Amino acid sequence: MLQRKKGFEYVSVGILWVLILTLTPNSVDVNWPVEFWYRQLFLALLLTVGYILHSQYLLPKLLDRNKFLIYGLSVIGVITAILLLVHFFEDQIELPRRMHELFRPEKPYNPENRRGPFDFTSFFLILFDLSLGVIIFLVRKQQNEQEIRKELEQLQVRTELSYLKAQINPHFFFNTLNNIYALTSIDVEASRTAILKLSAMMRYVIYDGDSQHATVSDEINFIENYIELMKLRLSKKVTLKFTKPSGTYDQPIAPMLLLPFVENAFKHGISSTVASEVIITIQLTGNVLDLYVENPIFPKSGEQHEEHGIGIANTRRRLELLYPSRYNFEIDDKDNTFKVSLQIEL
C-alpha cells in the first residue's frame, strides 16, 4: 500500500511538472520552436527524477537522521547536476541558436555569447521541486508519528496485560513463593536474597513497566533477577549459561522488551528428565544491544512453541514501532533447537 501511494505521488509530480512547463509558455503569444518543447519535457523529467531521489533517499536517510552536512552537499549536487544536464541538452538540440533566431533575428548568432549553465528560472524550479518534497515528507512524518503514538498506546495496554498474564503471572509468582518457602528451611540467607529479587522484579513491572523507557542496566537487572528466581526450579540436568555486560549503562530502552525471549527459553527449553543447556547472552557495544538466546525445544503437552505466540509477536511489533530500521531480529528453529538473535540500535 505504501509503495502504491509513493508511486501515485511520483506520477502526480511528473504530470504536474509537464503541465507547468508546457502550459505556462503558452500564455505568451510566441511561436516557440519545437526544440524548446523538447527542453521543457526534458526539464520536467529531471525535476521528477530529482524529486524521487530527494524524497526516497536524501530525506529519510540523511535529513531524518540528522546528517545535515551530507544532506546539504547532496542537495547542492542534485541542483548542479540538473542545471548541467539541462545546459548540455540545450546544446545538443541547438536550442540557444533557435531562441536567438526567434528573438534576435537581426543579429548573427555567436556561440561564444552562450550563457553558462546557471539559469535562474531553472534554479528556482529546482528549489521549488525540492522544497515540495520536504513539505510532503514532514507532513507525512507527522501523520505517521501520530498514528504510531496511537498504536503504541493501544499496544501498550495489550502488552501490559500480556506480560502480567503470561510472563509475570500469578502461576509464576506463587511457584516462586513456594520455592522460597521451601528454601527457608534449608538456607535462610538464600531465601532472603530470593525475596529481594522477587520484590525488585515486581517493582520494575509495576513502576517502570508503565513508562516508555527504562535504562539498559535496569532491564538487564530485571532479566538477571528473573533468571536467578528461575534457577530455584531447575534440576541438575539443566545447564544455564548467562553472560551480561559489566558496568552501568544509562541508555534508554523499552521496559520488559527482552523478557519474552528469556521466558520462552525457560518455558520450552528445560526438562526434568532430559539434560539440556540454555544460553542467554546480552552484550552492549556502543549504542548497539545484542541479545542471543539458545535452548532446546521440549514442547509441553497441548502447547505450541512461542515462535509465533503472543509474547514474541507483541515484542516484534514493539520493535517495529519503537526502533524502525534500527533493529535486526532473527529466529532459527532447526534440529529441535531454538535460537534468537536480536540487535537494537538504542
Automatic annotation (TrEMBL):
One GO location term (cellular component): membrane
A Pfam family annotated for this UniProt entry: His_kinase
Keyword flag Aminoacyl-tRNA synthetase: no
Transmembrane segments: 7-24, 36-59, 68-89, 120-139
Molecular function as annotated in GO: phosphorelay sensor kinase activity
Record keywords, A-Z: Kinase, Membrane, Transferase, Transmembrane, Transmembrane helix
Domain Signal transduction histidine kinase internal region per the UniProt entry, residue ranges: 160-237
InterPro entries named in the record: Bact_2-comp_sensor_kinase (IPR050640), HATPase_C_sf (IPR036890), Sig_transdc_His_kin_internal (IPR010559)
Domain of life: Bacteria
SUPFAM superfamilies per record: ATPase domain of HSP90 chaperone/DNA topoisomerase II/histidine kinase
Protein name: Histidine kinase
Organism of origin: Fulvivirga sedimenti
